[in-house]
Design brief:
This protein is of the alpha+beta class. The protein has three domains: 109 residues, Aminopeptidase (3-Layer(aba) Sandwich); 145 residues, Aminopeptidase (3-Layer(aba) Sandwich), CATH 3.40.630.30; 120 residues, SCP2 sterol-binding domain (Nonspecific Lipid-transfer Protein, Chain A, 2-Layer Sandwich). Helix content is 27%, strand content 32%. The protein is built from twelve helices and 19 strands. The strands form three sheets. Strands 1, 2, 3, 4, 5, 6, 7, 8, 9, 10, 11, 12 and 13 form a 13-stranded mixed beta sheet that branches.
Length: 414
């Protein structure tokens, strides 16, 4: 049994595994393996020439905390029936997360089929989605503003303009370019769906991607530049009232439809955990983000436990001495100008006499990698974490983690 990146001559085996484990149409499988699949970023368990398990590390760029960062989106987690229950996936997930770090990426994301399963691998919910269900006649009062056009691949630039404007409100979101939207148009067509763009004075102001099935108008995603363009989208949806009786909208948790409906009580607004994330390298993650704190000159020691990446386990010194949150693992060597570790003592001839051993510091709080991830993604506050853990929030914790909860929104499927 071997765990490794797959070879191009094994593409059919990976495809057969995907087809067995997932319910996607043949057309969609063709689309995925033509546009998204990358054998050089797909980890597999191979035994006797057969692909038994796979994890696809699809490459994305994410805006997080104002920084544009590369990350791996873990998809296609799959195992053949005869290989299940043998521990292959635990080993494969571990190796895959180490590979994420080897690609100099400090975190990974995934959309879980079961949150309990992925929490055991150190992932934690960091992104929610709002599901709105309502009668289509609840949208009757809204007015069209401008015109609508069905999007083609040639309209990718207009889709980018709308999307890029809309995501500025979020702390964590996926970055999309023209190539992404060119493929997205094709994907929606394969899925039997549509993308329409709203224009005002010749400029794109909103778009929605949707399908119609069994009398329900399902909005997979909707993005807009302002409320007037959003209300125009809602009227566009209402104009399908002879085809559809109900509407389901997937959108960000900051959506304002509840505020503008005449009778929101008759609609349902359900916040659902949607995407998970996990920090792969704690020190590099904080260097990547450069989280600004409102205070300076504070430090504390946090014990971190990680069930998968053993190098993350240990005691870290967190400080905001420069107004930027930093962490250093206790015992990690910090070198001086001569490249010598700070705990090294030299003799007169320059030979190393001994390495001074640091005493373990007092621990201010113990956190799992799951808790730390949700905290640093600004999905939860330190008050949230301590309340869940049933402990008091110390002044030093508040001084270090003094940033507020923010809205994250990612609506990527692969």
């Amino acid at each position: 049994m071997e765990i490794r990146f797959t070879n191009t001559n094994e593409n059919q085996g990976v495809r057969d595994l995907w087809t067995y484990c997932f319910t996607d149409s043949q057309d969609y499988v063709d689309f995925y393996f033509k546009n998204k699949y990358n054998p050089e970023k797909t980890m597999v368990v191979e035994d006797g020439g057969r692909i038994l398990s796979a994890i696809h590390l699809n490459q994305h760029r994410v805006k997080l905390g104002g920084k544009d960062l590369d990350t791996s989106y873990v998809v296609g987690v799959s195992t053949l029936a005869e290989a299940r229950g043998m521990g292959f996936m635990a080993d494969l997930m571990s190796r895959s997360l180490y590979q994420v770090g080897a690609m100099d990426q400090s975190f990974a994301i995934l959309m879980p089929i079961d949150h309990r399963l992925y929490r055991t691998y150190g992932f934690e919910t960091c992104y929610d989605i709002l599901e709105i269900k309502l009668d289509i006649f609840d949208l009757k009062k809204f007015k069209l503003d401008g015109s609508f056009k069905r999007a083609s691949k040639e309209d990718a630039d207009d889709l980018v303009k709308v999307y890029s404007s809309a995501i500025t409100a979020y702390n964590g979101s996926a970055l999309r370019d023209q190539a992404y939207f060119t493929e997205f148009v094709e994907e929606m067509e394969i899925e039997g769906g549509y993308i329409y763009i709203s224009y005002r004075d010749g400029q794109p102001t909103a778009y929605l991607a949707y399908t119609i099935d069994g009398g329900n108008f399902f909005v997979r995603e909707v993005y807009y530049k302002d409320m007037k363009s959003y209300q125009s989208v809602l009227k566009f949806i209402f104009n399908h009232n002879t085809q559809c009786k109900t509407v389901t909208i997937n959108t960000g948790v900051d959506d304002r439809l509840m505020d503008i409906l005449d009778n929101p009580k008759d609609a349902s607004f359900t916040i659902k955990p949607f995407m998970m994330a996990r920090i792969v390298d704690i020190e590099n993650f904080l260097r990547d983000l450069e989280i600004k704190t409102g205070q300076e000159g504070h430090s504390l020691n946090i014990e971190i436990s990680d069930p998968v990446i053993r190098e993350n386990n240990g005691i870290y010194s967190f400080d905001n001495n420069t107004g930027i949150l930093r962490a250093r693992k206790h015992g990690n060597a910090v070198t001086d100008l001569y490249g010598l570790a700070e705990n090294t003592m030299l003799g007169d001839d320059g030979a190393v006499l001994e390495r001074l051993v640091e005493d373990p510091p007092d621990i201010d709080i113990s956190l799992t990698i799951n808790e730390l991830t949700s905290l640093l993604f600004a999905y939860r506050t330190i008050e949230d974490i301590c309340f869940i853990k049933g402990i008091d929030v110390s002044d030093s914790l508040r001084a270090i983690f003094d940033f507020k909860k923010k809205t994250n929104y990612i609506n990527e499927y692969v």
